[in-house]
Amino acid sequence: MLNPKIKIAIAGVGTVGKGLIDLLLKYKNKQTKIEITAIASRRKQEFKGGIFRNTVFFSDAKKLLKFHNYDILVELIGGEKGVSKDIVFNALREKKNVVTANKALVSKFWNQLHSLMEKNNCLLKYEAAVAGGIPIIKVIDEFLLSNKITKIYGILNGTSNYILSNMLSYNKDFKDILSEAQRLGYAESNPKFDIDGTDTAHKLSILSSLAFECYNNVSKIDNEGIENVDLQDLEIADSLGYKIKLLGITELNNKNINNFVYPCLLSKDSFIAKIDGVYNGIVVESNFCKKSCFVGEGAGAHPTATSVLSDIISLSKKRKNCFKQSFKFSYQETSLQSRFGSYYLRFTTYDKPGVISGIANQFKTFNISMKSMLQKETEIGNSKDATIVITTHNCFESNMMKALKKINRLNFIRKKTVYFRIENFK
Amino acid sequence: MLNPKIKIAIAGVGTVGKGLIDLLLKYKNKQTKIEITAIASRRKQEFKGGIFRNTVFFSDAKKLLKFHNYDILVELIGGEKGVSKDIVFNALREKKNVVTANKALVSKFWNQLHSLMEKNNCLLKYEAAVAGGIPIIKVIDEFLLSNKITKIYGILNGTSNYILSNMLSYNKDFKDILSEAQRLGYAESNPKFDIDGTDTAHKLSILSSLAFECYNNVSKIDNEGIENVDLQDLEIADSLGYKIKLLGITELNNKNINNFVYPCLLSKDSFIAKIDGVYNGIVVESNFCKKSCFVGEGAGAHPTATSVLSDIISLSKKRKNCFKQSFKFSYQETSLQSRFGSYYLRFTTYDKPGVISGIANQFKTFNISMKSMLQKETEIGNSKDATIVITTHNCFESNMMKALKKINRLNFIRKKTVYFRIENFK
After folding, report:
1. Complex ipTM, two decimals?
2. A203 an active-site residue?
3. B198 and B270: one domain?
4. Staple A339 to which of A119, A397, B70, B288, CB 3.0 to 4.6 Å?
5. Same domain, B64 and B207
6. CB contact (8 A) between residue B146 and residue A309
7. Do B288 and A305 touch (CB under 8 A)?
8. CA dist list (Å): A213 to A210, B27, B269, B283
């Protein structure tokens, strides 16, 4: 059952727009054929042939107001007023579906957008507006919809998190790290909304409105930013067992909703304190699932474009299947013998000369190199055993197993050697 | 646009089945009306009236083979053979949709189930089969579908994670903690599959098959369990900077897929090492989103039932809207003034007598109680300043702001006092 081709008009080809085009160029789904019927972008783009062969180009997005050959408007211009607002409202009035990454617009006009959708039986989807690489809208709207959500909190702005994490790590002041973040593309040339908490407030307002089914006006959210976080405070907090993070917090409190945005101290052991760098992290508390946590890159072209494309596809296809349609890949399954990695080994031996060299000789034979060694005496009854713990550098499992087989037969070995694999996941 | 009523037949009312019924009793969605047309359960249940008024009860699930009055079969019996297999295959043959939590069945009969769905244009959904409280199937299938996934790894079994975490925390042996886990309901009376890695292998096989669009036969996965993890090794690993976790790992390696299940050492700083107790944690690495991490309760009646219900609803409703249909709640938004919590305060003062008592007096006036205090001298030019850092117990923000206003006017205060809020999130 093939679905018809879906026509999209893309407004804005900045960071996210370019990311979307990257994904569309790579995306091959047999079910859904996405056709780009229009691209509106101020900058002249070099899109030719291939997926652009039927694309109309506009240098002014306003031209989309009179363009009708699309099913989904993909609004990636941003901003709560001007042309982005005009084309989104126009599309919904024309009963078209819209996908947007525009947090300012969605948070400010939540009620109006909702009424229009209701009236015209069309949809606006905005996964990309909150924490690009985390499907938090889907989680709240489709997974937790049978739960009563009581609280959501998290790090919703990657730029601020990058700055706070790196001030402490590199012992540098706010301004130094901000400049560095701008140079690396983690902060805009005008980073005001990222660092003063406005961006976090927009996202929080959307999460709060969705989770509590009640419009939470973004302008009523008190927000404080990180401009005044001093390196000294990060260091003192660290010495007291805390990290400082810019959080958005929304919680139900009887008949009240608390919506807060501020930098605050969190125990280093807390889940959210462990999320550093440009990552976003969100914790959702609900009556049936208790605590669910989500971590991903919050910004950046590709994670955000992944959200946009996920929304486009979910609007375009009759979700026929949660199994994929084709098993196009054929892979060879490998066995543990092929593992290449490092190992933890615990040897129990008699405490006598020659033990280490006996082990080391076998390691040499099988090309295994030691990384660390720890030895301690253990008294069991009258005999003195030695416990030797060795960690290794990477080697093949097949070699390690052969070496262990030989070692376990050596006369100083008291018990079969215990081993565990070491994984170097970050 | 109201959708028609959806009829479900539930097979099996054990832990997850009871959880589902709890949720259905509480679930009020204006769009979707779920009607339970049949319940098959060996134990006599006391379901009367209300949502059960049109329900037929069977003591033998086999009776469902001849029962046709349903749209979705909800199979919660479990096991890869016998009646659970028969009724699932029968339903798909009759072109009905199926929702299941049965990881053994889905992992073993992946290809056959897929062919049958393809042929009969119906669906089997299995979010509850892997990490109950984490929507990982949805993430892979609907969110990351435009990405190329390269690796998935994680803690997929809550029982094992509980045992390993608690052995170390409470300095107890495997057997002691296992008994405790059984008493608390975190481990089955027969916990074989949980602790020997079979359960993890089933789940890994599903994730691997879905992510790599290629059937990964569960019987070919080498799996090692945690039966032989000694308290001694947990302690030595800890002293070396590692934790031991039972992981499932699937990764693409050119034309090979590595599927591994074993307990391994992980740096304490790694994301996955920080997930303790009954929680599951999954990391997905992909080309565009890089690293996405998900944490939630992996088992238990309610998180798993949340997954089951999410699948039922996604099959039953025309996903009209990602905005909710009604704003039925009305909440009062509160301001920061109403916050009740603790604070971090950094005072910069002249280094002279009376400073602490001056601050303490204002605290007393506004009912604020100190938790900790730290004082250090700072030399700035010729004058000696003192930096005093105080953390407080919970108090009202309004009181704290009044106290700070008064304190900032005291003659020993050199600079406006810096404050941050402290959040006690776990």
Report:
1. 0.91
2. yes
3. yes
4. A397
5. no
6. yes
7. yes
8. 5, 15, 38, 30
